[in-house]
Amino acid sequence: MTLDNLIQTIRTSEGADWLHINSETSFYNHRIVMKGATVVVDNHKEFASFKSDVQITIGWDLIESEDFKAIWANNNPDSNAKSYWFEVFYNNALVFRTLYVSVDGGRCNIP
User: Fold this and answer.
1) Which of 21, 40, 47, 60 has a CA-to-CA distance to 90 between 20 and 30 Å?
2) Which of the four pLDDT bands, split at 50, 70 and 90, describes residue 35?
3) Cβ-proximal residues to 38 (8 Å cutoff; 6+ apart), any chain
4) How much is the pTM?
5) Buried b / exposed e along 15-49 (16+ C-beta atoms within 10 A)
6) H or E, element range at 8
7) Count of CB atoms within 10 A of residue 102's CB?
8) Cα separation, 58 vs 44, whole angstroms
Protein backbone atom coordinates (compact mmCIF):
# COMPACT_ATOMS: atom_id res chain seq x y z
CA MET A 1 0.00 0.00 0.00
CA THR A 2 1.32 3.45 -0.89
CA LEU A 3 0.93 6.50 1.33
CA ASP A 4 -1.42 8.04 -1.24
CA ASN A 5 -3.60 4.90 -1.18
CA LEU A 6 -3.61 4.94 2.62
CA ILE A 7 -4.67 8.59 2.81
CA GLN A 8 -7.36 8.00 0.17
CA THR A 9 -8.68 5.02 2.15
CA ILE A 10 -9.02 7.21 5.23
CA ARG A 11 -10.53 10.16 3.34
CA THR A 12 -13.24 8.04 1.69
CA SER A 13 -14.13 6.03 4.80
CA GLU A 14 -17.09 6.65 7.06
CA GLY A 15 -17.38 6.63 10.84
CA ALA A 16 -18.92 3.14 10.83
CA ASP A 17 -15.76 1.81 9.12
CA TRP A 18 -13.72 2.47 12.28
CA LEU A 19 -13.48 0.92 15.73
CA HIS A 20 -13.12 3.84 18.14
CA ILE A 21 -10.91 3.31 21.19
CA ASN A 22 -10.80 5.87 23.99
CA SER A 23 -7.33 5.76 25.52
CA GLU A 24 -7.84 8.00 28.56
CA THR A 25 -6.79 5.20 30.89
CA SER A 26 -4.04 3.53 28.87
CA PHE A 27 -0.88 4.53 27.07
CA TYR A 28 -0.47 3.74 23.41
CA ASN A 29 2.12 5.49 21.25
CA HIS A 30 2.89 7.80 24.13
CA ARG A 31 5.46 10.56 24.26
CA ILE A 32 7.58 11.90 27.09
CA VAL A 33 8.12 15.67 27.27
CA MET A 34 9.73 18.06 29.72
CA LYS A 35 7.65 20.92 31.10
CA GLY A 36 10.24 22.89 32.98
CA ALA A 37 11.81 20.43 35.42
CA THR A 38 8.80 18.10 35.28
CA VAL A 39 8.63 14.96 33.14
CA VAL A 40 5.21 14.53 31.56
CA VAL A 41 3.95 11.40 29.78
CA ASP A 42 1.25 12.12 27.23
CA ASN A 43 -0.59 10.22 24.52
CA HIS A 44 -3.44 10.53 22.07
CA LYS A 45 -6.75 10.63 23.89
CA GLU A 46 -8.58 9.05 20.97
CA PHE A 47 -7.70 6.20 18.61
CA ALA A 48 -9.48 4.28 15.90
CA SER A 49 -8.67 1.14 13.95
CA PHE A 50 -9.91 0.62 10.41
CA LYS A 51 -12.19 -2.42 10.55
CA SER A 52 -11.37 -3.65 7.02
CA ASP A 53 -7.60 -3.43 7.57
CA VAL A 54 -6.51 -3.29 11.22
CA GLN A 55 -2.99 -2.36 10.11
CA ILE A 56 -4.43 1.17 9.67
CA THR A 57 -4.91 3.19 12.84
CA ILE A 58 -5.34 6.88 13.56
CA GLY A 59 -4.78 8.89 16.72
CA TRP A 60 -5.91 12.38 17.64
CA ASP A 61 -6.26 14.76 20.60
CA LEU A 62 -2.53 14.78 21.47
CA ILE A 63 -2.03 18.42 22.50
CA GLU A 64 0.78 20.33 20.81
CA SER A 65 -0.05 23.77 22.25
CA GLU A 66 -2.50 24.61 25.05
CA ASP A 67 -2.41 28.27 23.99
CA PHE A 68 -2.33 28.45 20.18
CA LYS A 69 -2.00 32.01 18.90
CA ALA A 70 -3.11 33.25 15.47
CA ILE A 71 -5.49 36.05 14.55
CA TRP A 72 -7.86 33.66 12.75
CA ALA A 73 -7.84 31.24 15.72
CA ASN A 74 -8.30 33.72 18.55
CA ASN A 75 -10.78 36.12 16.93
CA ASN A 76 -13.90 34.24 18.09
CA PRO A 77 -16.45 34.70 20.90
CA ASP A 78 -14.22 32.38 22.97
CA SER A 79 -10.63 33.33 22.11
CA ASN A 80 -9.16 30.08 23.47
CA ALA A 81 -7.49 27.89 20.83
CA LYS A 82 -5.43 24.70 21.15
CA SER A 83 -3.44 22.76 18.57
CA TYR A 84 -3.42 18.97 18.41
CA TRP A 85 -1.67 16.24 16.43
CA PHE A 86 -3.62 13.97 14.11
CA GLU A 87 -1.47 10.96 13.23
CA VAL A 88 -1.84 7.99 10.88
CA PHE A 89 -0.14 4.68 11.66
CA TYR A 90 0.37 1.67 9.41
CA ASN A 91 1.54 -1.53 11.13
CA ASN A 92 2.09 0.69 14.18
CA ALA A 93 4.58 2.87 12.27
CA LEU A 94 3.89 6.60 12.11
CA VAL A 95 3.45 7.38 8.40
CA PHE A 96 1.65 10.74 8.41
CA ARG A 97 1.03 13.55 10.87
CA THR A 98 -0.57 16.97 10.74
CA LEU A 99 -1.70 19.61 13.19
CA TYR A 100 -5.25 20.78 13.59
CA VAL A 101 -6.48 23.65 15.71
CA SER A 102 -9.50 23.64 17.97
CA VAL A 103 -10.94 27.17 18.05
CA ASP A 104 -13.71 29.05 19.84
CA GLY A 105 -13.18 27.11 23.06
CA GLY A 106 -13.40 23.75 21.30
CA ARG A 107 -16.49 24.45 19.22
CA CYS A 108 -14.73 23.92 15.88
CA ASN A 109 -11.68 21.97 14.66
CA ILE A 110 -9.75 23.38 11.70
CA PRO A 111 -7.11 21.39 9.78
Assistant:
1) 40
2) confident
3) none
4) 0.78
5) eebbeeeebeeeeeeeeeeeeeeeeeeebbebbbb
6) helix 3-11
7) 19
8) 9
